[in-house]
Amino acid sequence: MLKGRIIKALSGFYYVEAEGSIYATRARGLFRKTKESPLVGDIVTFQVENDMEGYITAIDPRKNSLARPPVANIDQLLITMSMKSPEFNYYLLDRFLAYAEAHDMEPVVIITKMDLADDDFDAEALKSVYSGIYPVHFTDRGSIARDLEMIFEDKISVLAGQSGVGKSTLLNTFLPALDLETAEISNALNRGKHTTRHVELMDIAGGKIADTPGFSTIEFTGLDKYNLKFCFPDFNVHSEKCKFRECQHIKEPKCGVKEAVANEMLAKTRYDSYVTIYHEIENRKVRY
Ligand SMILES: Nc1nc2c(ncn2[C@@H]2O[C@H](COP(=O)(O)OP(=O)(O)OP(=O)(O)O)[C@@H](O)[C@H]2O)c(=O)[nH]1
Ligand SMILES: [Zn+2]
């Protein structure tokens, strides 16, 4: 028996990296009963047959998993946002950050297209809101790679960000062999956006990354509104001052979080994002 990580799933085979080799494995009937199917990123135990082939006998419990892209055990979510074109949006960034927190992925913020920024003010305003909470990196056409190189080490990463922010450009910088289609290419060829392809974990600067430009929209299905506050770690220190232990920081009096916003100890954009997502979850239609 060997143990390794699934790095690719294709045509019924799961390609498992173990002890420096890649084995083509199958899942057999075992998982039909449990309705569980292996995902890229899973740590699996497998029985070797015919040299480099084998079959999976067990899947380790997952730390997390996403449906799109279908990847398990993600360590970090690289949230890509452009400063301009499309315009930087605090709310959208906060959505992605809360989503990462809800799925137990460490968020890393990457702000692209700094060459299009008005002046230094943009970056300073952003840093003042986020750099105390999350790692924030700035990139432009010329300097994408250098300061990002160390973020991948020993981690499984997935990229996320709205359309056109430069996700493919970023991936191509680190993985030139991948040659993902960026906007210029698809426009020049008069083609639409990327067609769906199988996801694969690629080696990148000492870690692994899903070779898709990731996802651009998110929903908070599965998250209870009472748990949303735990997805805003910068609220913690202020919520200790809330009068009510179960304070949701919405309508309650003597709320430490609301006071922190009033005293400019907490960014109003963060609080507003929280309230908007809170109401979105509250108004979610229950489906049976
Ligand atoms: N000025 C400037 N343009 C950039 C930068 N990074 C990417 N772009 C351009 O922004 C456009 C969109 O980049 P893509 O890499 O295709 O963006 P994407 O996030 O993969 O977009 P989708 O495939 O729609 O999700 C392209 O025209 C890129 O050349 C940058 O740092 N500065
Ligand atoms: Zn409160």
From TrEMBL:
Binding residue positions for GTP: T112, K113, M114, D115, G161, Q162, S163, G164, V165, G166, K167, S168, T169
Domain CP-type G: 63-218
Cofactor(s) required, per the database record: Zn(2+)
Gene3D superfamilies, A to Z: Nucleic acid-binding proteins, P-loop containing nucleotide triphosphate hydrolases, Probable gtpase engc, domain 3
EngC GTPase domain residues: 72-216
Residue positions binding Zn(2+): C242, C247, H249, C255
InterPro entries in the cross-refs: G_CP_dom, NA-bd_OB-fold, P-loop_NTPase, Ribosome_biogen_GTPase_RsgA, RsgA_GTPase_dom, RsgA_N
Pfam families: RsgA_GTPase (PF03193), RsgA_N (PF16745)
Keywords: Cytoplasm, GTP-binding, Hydrolase, Metal-binding, Nucleotide-binding, Ribosome biogenesis, RNA-binding, rRNA-binding, Zinc
CDD domains: S1_YloQ_GTPase, YjeQ_EngC
Its EC number(s): 3.6.1.-
Entry note: cofactor: Binds 1 zinc ion per subunit.
Subcellular location field: Cytoplasm
Principal EC category: hydrolase
Principal subcellular localisation of the protein: cytoplasm
Quaternary structure, from the entry: Monomer. Associates with 30S ribosomal subunit, binds 16S rRNA.
HAMAP family registered for this protein in UniProt: GTPase_RsgA (MF_01820)
Family (UniProt): Belongs to the TRAFAC class YlqF/YawG GTPase family. RsgA subfamily.
Function of the molecule: One of several proteins that assist in the late maturation steps of the functional core of the 30S ribosomal subunit. Helps release RbfA from mature subunits. May play a role in the assembly of ribosomal proteins into the subunit. Circularly permuted GTPase that catalyzes slow GTP hydrolysis, GTPase activity is stimulated by the 30S ribosomal subunit.
Name of this protein: Small ribosomal subunit biogenesis GTPase RsgA
Protein source organism: Salinicoccus siamensis
